[in-house]
């Protein structure tokens, strides 16, 4: 499947914030696909482009493609352009970013489907394709929590996820890291759950929350949420 025939594709090439142009090195220079997450709960190509241009002072958005939560694929650069997203690997890598902070939750099913389709199309378009790597697998980026989800499992056709929803419980906020730690200990002593800590990136205080692992049904999540509210 070629790029232009992908479902829910929006061509934004040359339409988002920019301050110059990225160089072209020919499609033969592209051997890698780099997978990113935005580290934000919301956003789109225009928002990321403004940040990359006005804050990072880059020529334009760093990602060739951005996948929104509803599965929309935003196309930002011709495949032969070298944009900024993996340092010394920029010349050979096409950047794909999924909107979300996947330290705390999984990409949506629509995003996973879109990623699989886009990945297959890119491999068809890239005559010298060799590999697909996460951002943190490129030299110098081992420290980055990106993309923070198992993209290889998503791309593995044998492991395509069933079309089911999963639910989490998010607690109210805690005013300090100490209170957060105490709350986490109480949860772990009461329930055999996986629990994640989260600092909300906002101007509101208090900023700390706890997020549980997933529940298969909404009813199960609501039942436990009611128990927590009573305690």
Automatic annotation (TrEMBL):
Protein name according to UniProt: Autolysin
Organism per entry: Pontibacillus chungwhensis BH030062
Pfam assignment, any one: Amidase_2
Record keywords, A-Z: Hydrolase
Biological processes, Gene Ontology terms: peptidoglycan catabolic process
GO terms assigned for molecular function: N-acetylmuramoyl-L-alanine amidase activity; peptidoglycan binding; zinc ion binding
PROSITE patterns, per the entry: SPOR
Gene3D superfamilies per record: Peptidoglycan recognition protein-like
Lineage, broadest ranks: Bacteria, Bacillati, Bacillota, Bacilli, Bacillales
Domain SPOR: 161-231
TM region positions: none
